[in-house]
Amino acid sequence: MTTAGAWARKDPTTPLWRAAVVLRVLTLLFAAGVVLAYYDEYARPRLGLVTIGVMTVWTAVIAVRYLRVTDRLLGFTVADLAVSCALMCMSRLVLTPEQLHVDTVPLVTTVWVTGVVAAGAVCAGPTVGAVFGAVIAAFNYGVRGYVDIDLTRDLTLLVGVGFVLGLAAASSRRSAERLATALRAEAATAERERLARSIHDGVLQVLARVRRRGVELGGEAAELARLAGEQEIALRTLVSTAPESTRSAEDGSTDLGARLRLLASGQTQVSVPATAVRLPASVAAELEAVVREALSNVAKHAGGDARAWVLLEDLGAEIILSVRDDGVGFAPDRIDEAEREGRMGIARSIRGRVTDLGGSVTVDTAPGAGVEWELRVPRRAGVHR
Asked: Fewer Cβ neighbours under 10 Å: the N or C end of the chain?
């Protein structure tokens, strides 16, 4: 198993689960000591011992479940909460009415029930942890039968502890995910470098030789040389672009620049910022499709010797994409005429996509002067720069 795979299978909150189990055992021992200390004063002392017995059995059950990664389910944690609340209610039968109304006499469960708040927080995060704390506090009010400052203090502590532990658990999970991603990227980079060396020693050298020899021979061999040159550039771009940079991150964003670099060829140059231009994956995919369509039009209509340039600019508030060629160009009103005649290729593939993204498209062209497309797309909410 690889290091990244091991991290992917390991629950980063395991130490917190172990701590929750230890807390449950220690508070059980404390509760048993309290029952023994007040045994002769209880209304039903034997029922108090029975309650401690049930707490002991349940603590053993949850210890087994919580120490196994596959059994840490929210449903079982909710069941743990229900059992804890039911055992709290037993205090109304064990304690005398006078003891229930005296803060110095604890309930039979005492602080044992705080363990379920910790379990809920570790299992499902700060919100669930705070809710579990509020439920335990509400039962504390109900069993006691009154509200005062001391019980309200317990409420504040239970909700606060649940929330803080939930934040810690959520932070642990996020950190583990980031580390696993970094390890995968490191492994992918190492593999890419190994493949790049192999390709450089084999395929790229052959393509370079075919290109040079074809140029020397001329004729049909020159066309083969041109194609070999394009494939050489495309292959160099592919092996030099990190695969992780073209994938979607946790927040759903991806690097548009990395995706555009893969479009470089012998007749197309791509210039992008040195830093990542992160956009929502759906927006990046649409802009990449627009650029591909523009380059396709260059190949079809600009002439066999036409070259193209793709420029990406990140202005913060908006993204500017320029696609320019030095081909034959066309009359400025030709696009409008094509739309009127029902030929909607450019309108749908380029203008339609950019308009759907809230952007604008301008075209600068003239016969014999090539074509330049300028696409301006505003950044959307939630995009991370």
From this structure: N
CATH match of 251-385 with 3.30.70.20: no
Radius of gyration of the chain (CA): 34
Least trusted range by pLDDT, from 17-31, 105-119, 162-176, 322-336? 322-336
Render the burial of 151-172: b for 16+ CB within 10 Å, e for the rest: eeebbeebbebbbebbebbbeb
Q: Rounded to the nearest 5 degrees, what angle is found at the Cα of 292, between the Cα atoms of 240 and 208?
A: 40
Q: Are 352 and 289 in contact (CB under 8 A)?
A: no
Per-domain boundaries in the chain: 3-177, 251-385
Up-side HSE of residue 180: CA atoms within 13 Å toward CB?
18
> Do 163 and 130 contact (CB within 8 A), yes or no?
yes
Q: How far apart are CA 264 and CA 307, in angstroms?
A: 11
**What are the E-state strand segments in the chain?**
253-255, 268-271, 278-280, 308-314, 318-325, 360-365, 371-378
Three-class DSSP category at 4 = helix
What average pLDDT does range 180-196 have in this prediction? Answer: 73
Tokens describing residue 69 = 């990664």
Say how far apart CA 262 and CA 265 lie, in whole Å. 8
The residue with greater pLDDT, 198 or 117, is: 117
**pLDDT tier at 243 (50, 70, 90 boundaries)?**
low
pLDDT value of residue 339: 61
What pLDDT shows up at residue 254?
84
CB 33 within 8 A of CB 109: no
Return phi, psi of residue 377, to 5°: -130, 125
* Tokens, residue 209: 């030789």
Contact 91, 52 (CB under 8 A): no
The mean pLDDT of the chain is 81
In terms of C-beta density within 10 A (0-12 exposed, 13-18 middle, 19 or more buried), how is residue 308 classed?
A: buried
- How far apart CA 121 and CA 128 sit, in angstroms, is 6
- Report d(CA 353, CA 287) in Å as an integer: 8
Orientation angle between helical segments 149-199 and 126-144, nearest 10 degrees: 160
